[in-house]
């Protein structure tokens, strides 16, 4: 099975992947603050989703 290689993607797709990668940390921090002050099920779910996406980018799985 071949490893995912992001540089084989079209330039426009790579651009949006990098934008999403850079925006993940501020969104995750905002969601953490929101979850601490107003904890709802949806906020906890979104925080877990953003943490998972951030870890995937950090470990270069995406």
Give a structural overview:
Helix content is 73%, strand content 0%. By secondary structure, it is mainly α. α1 packs across α2. The longest helix has 27 residues.
Short structural summary:
By secondary structure, this protein is mostly helical.
Helix/strand order: HH
Structural class, judged by helices and strands? mainly alpha
Count of distinct strands: 0
- The averaged pLDDT comes out at 89
Taking the sheet with the most strands, its summary is: none
Stretches where pLDDT is under 50 for at least 5 consecutive residues are none
Query: What percent of residues are in strands?
Result: under 5%
So what's the overall shape? elongated
Radius of gyration: 14 Å
**Number of helices, counting only DSSP H or I runs of 4 residues or more:** 2
Distance between the termini: 15 Å
- Give the helix level as a range of percent: over 70%
Strand and helix map with partners:
Blueprint: H1 11-37, H2 41-58
Helix pairs in contact: 1-2
Characteristic key phrases:
about 60 residues, mainly alpha
């Amino acid at each position: 099975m071949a490893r995912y290689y992001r540089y084989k993607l079209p330039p426009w797709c790579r651009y949006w992947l990098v934008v999403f990668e850079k925006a993940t940390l501020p969104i995750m921090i905002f969601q953490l603050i929101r979850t601490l002050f107003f904890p709802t099920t949806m906020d906890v779910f979104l925080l877990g989703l953003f943490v998972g996406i951030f870890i995937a980018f950090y470990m270069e799985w995406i």
